[in-house]
Amino acid sequence: MSLERPAITLTHVRKAYANGTVALQDMSLTIQESQFVSLVGPSGCGKSTVLRLMAGLGTLSSGSIEWGEHQSQRQLAFVFQDAALMPWATVLDNVLLPLKLAGQPRSKALPTVREALHLVGLDRFAQSYPRELSGGMKMRASIARALVTQPSVLLMDEPFGALDEITRSKLNGDVLELWSQKQWTVVFVTHNIYEAVYLSNRVIVMAARPGRVVADIAIDAPYPRTEEFRTSALYNEYCREVQDRLSEAMEVKQSTPVYSQVSPRPSI
Ligand SMILES: Nc1ncnc2c1ncn2[C@@H]1O[C@H](COP(=O)(O)OP(=O)(O)OP(=O)(O)O)[C@@H](O)[C@H]1O
Q1: To bridge 45 with a disulfide, which of 14, 144, 204, 208 should be the other Cys (CB 3.0-4.6 Å)?
Q2: What domains are there in the chain, each with its CATH number?
Q3: CA atoms of 244 and 60, how far apart (whole Å)
Q4: CA angle 103-106-111, nearest 5°?
Q5: Can you give the pTM of this predicted structure?
Q6: Which residue intervals define the domain ABC transporter in the entry (predicted)?
Q7: What separation in Å is there between the alpha carbon of 65 and the centre of ligand 1?
Q8: pLDDT band per the 50, 70, 90 thresholds, residue 268
Q9: Measured from the CB, is residue 59 less than 6 Å from ligand 1?
């Protein structure tokens, strides 16, 4: 797996919204192909704005976003916290939607849809309706819908934020497995430092007002990341480092340790 070729490069990006809010100020960041990069930071620091700008949803006030030689904005898929499924359509038809919109005949699209459903473990639920699915299954359907477009870049905006801890942890493992198979470049927004450290080979810590990068932490631990990794000293050290940098970013010093695996996982 190459970690050397730039996939997306942000250079001195500034984003001010029409109401004057400066969401991002002088943000520079290079994401390499096949990296799994998480963005963490306090509410309002511009994480979603970064993803939206990468996706071409909105204009930069200044600076630039460039795509590497082998990846392009056309090859990206976006997964949101809200699975945003059409309630009147079956899981199969929901997952088929991007291909239908791209003009593919149903008969040609169906094998791709079935493969995506298989990859996320929803084969048996193709004919179910969203109301019949759990929160985790809805999110799997949403990921399958992203998969059918065969993206090389996956932008994920707090995809598991609304899920319980056990479901989140299972989906974390599944996403890592898909990532290792597909070699996507992933940019993942989360409020959960444990999730960020578990998944990523890089965690970018941002601060707010204005939104900017304050730390770029390499998570130098091998994949596959097993359950043992979650209880290892190395994992806890990385979580502590990210937490410390976040506390600095939020100008709130933690007075008590929050790293125990038995305590609730902190969110920001
Ligand atoms: N369309 C908009 N118009 C005006 N201001 C906006 C708009 N979208 C976002 N903002 C502001 O820009 C800043 C960054 O917002 P953004 O949603 O990118 O932050 P975030 O880090 O993703 O927040 P959260 O973690 O709460 O989702 C915030 O101050 C927000 O209020």
Answers
A1: 208
A2: 1-44+61-71+177-253 (3.40.50.300)
A3: 31
A4: 115
A5: 0.88
A6: 8-233
A7: 19
A8: low
A9: no
Give every CB contact of residue 140 below 8 A, 6+ residues apart in sequence. 120, 121, 122, 171, 174
Q: Is 19 in the pocket of ligand 1 (CB under 6 A)?
A: yes
Structure tokens at 178: 């898909």
What residue owns the CA closest to ligand 1's atom 6?
Answer: 17
Q: Does residue 264 register a pLDDT over 80?
A: no
Q: How far is the CA of 211 from the centre of ligand 1 (A)?
A: 9
| Whether pLDDT at 45 is above 60 | yes
> DSSP secondary-structure letter at 160?
T
Nearest atom in ligand 1 to the alpha carbon of residue 49 is: 18
- Does ligand 1 lie within 6 Å of residue 48's CB atom? yes
Return the number of other C-beta atoms located less than 10 Å from residue 168's C-beta: 22
Mutation to probe ligand 1, out of 22, 45, 59 (largest number of atoms < 8 A from CB): 45
CA-nearest of 168, 157, 180 to 38 is 157
DSSP-derived pairing of the beta strands 22-32 and 202-207:
unpaired
**Among residues of the chain, what percentage have pLDDT more than 90?**
62
Q: Please tell me the distance between residue 149's alpha carbon and the centre of ligand 1 in angstroms.
A: 28
